[in-house]
Automatic annotation (TrEMBL):
Its cofactor is heme. This is Cytochrome P450. The chain crosses the membrane at residues 6-25. Belongs to the cytochrome P450 family. One of its GO terms (molecular function) is oxidoreductase activity, acting on paired donors, with incorporation or reduction of molecular oxygen. The keyword Acyltransferase does not apply. Keywords: Heme, Iron, Membrane, Metal-binding, Oxidoreductase, Transmembrane, Transmembrane helix. The keyword Iron applies. It is found in: Membrane. Heme binds at C443. The lineage of its organism: Eukaryota, Viridiplantae, Streptophyta, Embryophyta, Tracheophyta. It is a single-pass membrane protein.
Length: 508
C-alpha cells in the first residue's frame, strides 16, 4: 500500500515544525497559567503506528488517562476518563460537535449524513430517525428480516460443515448484515450472501472507501492527493462512484414507485419518501450513515464474538443451553425451526447472551475511537484546559482495557461481570461503557443492534459448534472506521443436530 508510506515521507520533512510548535505552545501556556494535558505523541507517531493504532493509544492511556497528540496546526486530546467524557458528550454538549475537521474528513464517504453534521441539520436528521426507530412497524419488519437472513446464513454454514470445509465467517456476517440493512433501510433484496455481483461490488467498494476515509485522519497530505486525484484519494473517489451510483439508483426506483408506497411499507427509505424527504443527495447521505452504522458494526461485533466463543468453549456451551431452554428447542430442531423459535419474548430473557455480546463490545468496540471538536475555550472536570478548535476524542478500545474502570481482570473475557446476583443483566454507565456513544448522540440503533446480534448468535450457536481453523494464527484488527478482523475469521463448524446433516446430504 504505497499511500500508507507516502504520508510518512511527506510528514518527516515537517517534524521539526512540531517541536517548534511544541516549544511555542509551552511558552504560551505558561504565560496564561493554564494547565494542559500531557503530550503523548505527534501525528507522525499515529502515522507510524497506523496498523496498530488502537494498541498505541492504549499504551499511552496506561501512562495518562487523558493526553494530547500534537498535529502540525492543532492538538487532539484523547481521553478515557468517564467524567471528561460525560462532560463533553452531555453536560456541555453544545460546545462539542463534529466541526469542520471531522466533517471534511468524513464527507467523502458520508456526505452531510447524521455522523458528520451539527446544529439544525443534525437535529432534523436525529428527529426523523428517532421517530422511525421507535415505530412498532419497523421493529416487527426488522425482526422478520433478521430471522430470515440468520437462517440463510446458517444454511450456507451447513454446507461447509457437511463437507468439513473451513468458513470465513466475518465475510458471511458482512454480507448478511449488508442484506439485512439494505432490506430494513431500503426495502431492497441485495442477496449478497448468494454472491450476486452487484451486491459484492457495492460491499467491496464501501469497505475500501471506509479504510481510505479512516486513513485521512493520519495522512496530512490527503487534501493535496484529493486535488491531484492520486493515491488513497483516487481510490476513495473510484469507490464512492460505485457506492453513490448504487444508492441513487435505488432512490430513483423507489421514487418511481411512489404511488405504490401508500401501504405502510416497513423499510425506512419508503417512509422517508412518504414524509416528502425527496432530495436525492440528502437521502443518499442519510442512507449511507445507516449502512455504516448497521452493517459494519453488527458484523464486526459478531465476528469478534465468535472469536471469543472459540477461545472460550465453555461459554459457547453455556449460551447454547440458555438459548435452547428459552426458545424451547430440542436436539432434533433444524435450522428453520430454530430461527422461528427465536421469539421477541425469548430474546428478552437471554441475559447471559446479552452479557457475552456486551463483554465482546467492551473489549472489541465496533467504533474503537470517536471524536469531536471544541467550539470555545473550556476546562474539563479534571481541571485541564481545552482550547477552541482542539479535537477531543474518547477511546472505547482503550477504556475496555483499563483496570481502573473494570478491575484487575479488565483484559479477560468474562461475561459474568455483567450479571447481578439474581442472574439479570446489569447496565453500566454509557460514559464508562462507550461502545454506543452517550448523551444526546447516543446510538439510536442500540436495541436493533443487540436484537440482530442475538438472533444471529442464537441461530448459529444452536445449530453448530465452532472452533478456530488454526488455533496458532494471530487474530488482529484492520485499521478502519470500524473494528474489523484483518483477513477475516476462519472457523470450522460442526452440526449439532446429526439428523439435519443426514437430511442435507440426502438433498445434495
Amino acid at each position: 500500500m504505497s499511500y500508507y508510506y507516502s504520508g510518512i515521507v511527506a510528514g518527516l520533512a515537517a517534524i521539526v515544525v512540531v517541536f517548534v510548535v511544541k516549544g511555542v505552545a509551552g511558552r504560551f501556556e505558561s504565560k496564561k497559567k493554564k494547565k494542559y494535558h500531557p503530550i503523548g505523541g505527534t501525528i507522525f507517531h499515529l502515522l507510524y503506528n497506523f496498523r496498530r493504532v488502537h494498541h498505541y493509544l492504549t499504551d499511552l492511556t496506561r501512562k495518562n488517562t487523558t493526553f494530547r497528540i500534537l498535529y502540525l496546526d492543532n492538538v487532539e486530546i484523547y481521553t478515557s476518563d468517564p467524567a471528561n467524557i460525560e462532560y463533553f458528550l452531555k453536560t456541555n454538549f453544545a460546545n462539542y460537535g463534529k466541526g469542520s475537521f471531522h466533517h471534511d474528513v468524513l464527507e467523502g464517504l458520508l456526505g452531510d449524513g447524521i455522523f458528520t453534521v451539527d446544529g439544525e441539520r443534525w437535529k432534523h436528521q436525529r428527529k426523523m430517525s428517532s421517530y422511525e426507530f421507535s415505530t412498532r412497524n419497523l421493529r416487527e419488519f426488522s425482526s422478520g428480516v433478521f430471522k430470515n437472513n440468520a437462517a440463510k446464513l446458517a444454511h450456507i454454514v451447513s454446507q461447509s460443515a457437511s463437507s468439513n470445509q473451513i468458513i470465513e465467517i466475518q465475510d458471511l456476517f458482512m454480507k448478511s448484515s449488508m442484506d439485512s440493512v439494505f432490506k430494513v433501510v431500503l426495502g431492497v433484496d441485495l442477496e449478497s450472501m448468494s454472491g450476486t455481483n452487484e451486491g459484492s461490488q457495492f460491499s467491496k467498494a464501501f469497505d475500501e472507501a471506509s479504510e481510505m476515509t479512516s486513513y485521512r485522519y493520519v495522512d496530512i497530505t490527503w487534501p493535496i492527493k484529493k486535488f491531484l486525484n492520486m493515491g488513497s484519494e483516487a481510490t476513495l473517489k473510484k469507490c464512492m462512484k460505485i457506492v453513490d451510483g448504487f444508492v441513487y439508483k435505488v432512490i430513483e426506483s423507489k421514487n418511481a414507485q411512489k404511488q405504490d408506497l401508500q401501504g405502510g411499507r416497513g423499510d425506512i427509505l419508503s417512509r422517508f419518501l412518504e414524509m416528502k424527504e425527496a432530495d436525492a443527495k440528502y437521502l443518499k447521505d442519510i442512507i449511507l450513515s445507516f449502512i455504516i452504522a448497521g452493517k459494519d458494526t453488527t458484523a464486526s461485533t459478531l465476528s469478534w464474538f465468535f472469536y471469543m466463543m472459540c477461545k472460550h468453549p465453555h461459554i459457547q456451551e453455556k449460551i447454547v443451553e440458555e438459548v435452547r431452554v428459552l426458545a424451547k428447542l430440542n436436539e432434533h430442531s433444524g435450522i428453520d425451526d430454530i430461527a422461528q423459535s427465536i421469539t421477541e419474548e425469548a430474546l428478552d430473557k437471554m441475559q447471559f447472551l446479552h452479557a457475552a455480546l456486551s463483554e465482546t463490545l467492551r473489549l472489541y468496540p465496533a467504533v474503537p475511537a470517536d471524536g469531536k471538536m471544541c467550539f470555545a475555550d473550556d476546562t474539563f472536570p479534571d481541571g485541564f484546559s481545552v482550547k477552541k478548535g482542539n479535537l477531543v476524542s474518547y477511546v472505547p478500545y482503550s477504556m475496555g482495557r483499563m483496570k481502573s474502570l473494570w478491575g484487575e481482570d479488565a483484559e479477560e473475557f468474562r461475561p459474568e461481570r455483567w450479571i447481578d446476583d439474581n442472574g439479570v443483566f446489569k447496565q453500566e454507565s454509557s460514559f464508562k461503557f462507550t461502545a454506543f456513544q452517550a448523551g444526546p448522540r447516543i446510538c439510536l440503533g442500540k436495541e436493533f443492534a443487540y436484537r440482530q446480534m442475538k438472533v444471529f448468535a442464537s441461530v448459529l450457536l444452536s445449530a453448530f459448534s465452532f472452533k478456530l481453523a488454526d488455533e496458532c494464527k494471530p487474530v488482529n484488527y484492520r485499521t478502519m472506521l470500524t473494528l474489523q478482523i484483518d483477513g477475516g475469521l476462519h472457523l470450522r463448524a460442526v452440526l449439532r443436530n446429526k439428523h439435519e446433516e443426514t437430511t442435507h446430504k440426502h438433498l445434495h
